[in-house]
Amino acid sequence: MTRRSLLRGGLGLGVGAGAAALAGCTVPGTSSVNTEPTIPPAGPDETVTLTYWAWLKELQTVADVWNAENPRVQVEISWIPGGPDGGYQKLYSALAAGSGPDLAQVEMRSIPEFMLVDGVIDLSRYGIDDYADRFDPTLWGQVSFAGGVYGVPQDSGPTALYHRPDLLEEVGAAPPETWQEWAEIGAEVRDAGRFMGTFPLADTSVFAAHAMQAGAVWLSAEEDGWVIDMAGESTLEVARFFDAAVDAEIVSTQLQPFSPGWFAAAAEGRIATLMSASWGDALLEGVSDAEGKWRVAPLPQWPAGYGSAQLGGSTTAVLANSAHPREAMEFAVWLNSSAAGIDGLIEHSGIGWSANPGHIGAPRQGGSEFFGGQAYNTEIFAPAAEQQNPDWQWWPTTQQTFNVLADAFRGKAGGTSLVDAVVQAEADTMEVFREKGLAIRRAER
Question: What is the pTM of this model?
Fold first, then answer.
C-alpha cells in the first residue's frame, strides 16, 4: 500500500489500530522499520555503545549508574533542546538522513507524530510486553497501539491544586472540592485584590488538561478514520466555565505560570491557587520567601469526569535507525522502572511523576519543609496518578492542534469567547488532518 492510501484508508478498529496504520507510513523512499526483520542482540564478546538524545539535565550521571553495572552496553547522553524548542527538528532531520541516536526523549503526546514518519521502533517485537506490569496502565496505554508499544513511559504529570491556605483563610475558605466552589471562593479572593489563579491563553495544554479531567476525549480512531470531538459537551462545559472566570477577573490571562511575572505576583501574595502537575513543586520553590506558605490539595472536581488529569509526560523511545534496539529497550526499561533509575532521575534530572506505580521514588517519601511538612506526594499525587482519564489518547497533529487553539484563544482579549475558539479550533484541526491526507469526521452529538 502507498503511504497516502495508508493515511486515507480505514484505520482499523479502535485507537490502537488507527495508530498502527500510521506506523506503516514511512519516509518516502524507505521501507517500514517495523516490517523489517528484527535485529538480533549483540554477541557475548561485543561491546555496544548506545546514544541517547534528551533534554533532561545531568542524565549522564544517571546513565553512568547503568554503565558501571553493564560494561558490555554503555550509554552516552547528548543534550538537545526541549522537543518543541528545536529538539524534535534535530531528531526528524537525523531520521531523514538515516542517522541519529539509538534512544530519544519524546513526549507522550508526540509519539504518534514520530509514528507518522516511521521514526520509532515497535518494542513489542523485542519483548517489551514482559515488562508491562512495571508501568502505570494508563501511561502504558498512551504508548501502546494495536499490539505494538512505541515508547517506554518515563514520567507523567498528574495534577493537583497548589494553594496558599493563609490567603484562602482570609476569606473564610478551605481548599475547594469542586470547580464551582473554586469560582465562588475566587470572587471573594478577587475582591481582596488577588487572583484565584491563572488561565494561560498561549499554553493550551492547560486547557486540554481541564477538558481531560472533565471526561473529554478530543480525538479517537475508528475503522473509517479519525473522529474528532474537541467541541463536545465536556469540553464546552470547561470553556464556558473559564469564559466566566476570565470575564469576572477571577483569573489572570497575562500571568503564565512560572514566568517571571507570575513569580513576582506569587511572591507578593497575589496568587491564591495554581492548578499544576506534580513537577510544579520544584518550580514553586523558586517563589521568593515562600517556604512553608504553600500546600497541595486534590484537584477540584467537575460534575462528571475524573479525579485528576495529565499535564506533561515523556517517554524513552527507541528510534528507527538504532542498530541495537534490544539493548536500547533494556536500558530504557531499567532507567524508567528500577529504583536506581527512578531515584537517579528524580535527584539529578528532576523528572515528573514516576511511571512505575510501585516506586514513586525515595526522594518523594515523607514530608516537605517547603510545603509545611506535608507528605503531599503520597497523600495527594499518588492517588491522583490513579485517577486519570484512561480513554484519552494523543494524535498525530497534537502540537498543531494546540497551536491553532492558542491562536483562537488569543481572540478572547478582543471579545471572542473561549467556546467560539474551541469550535473554530476543531474546524482548523480537521483541515490540518485533511491536508495530511488523514480521514476525519466529527463525532455525533
Answer: 0.90
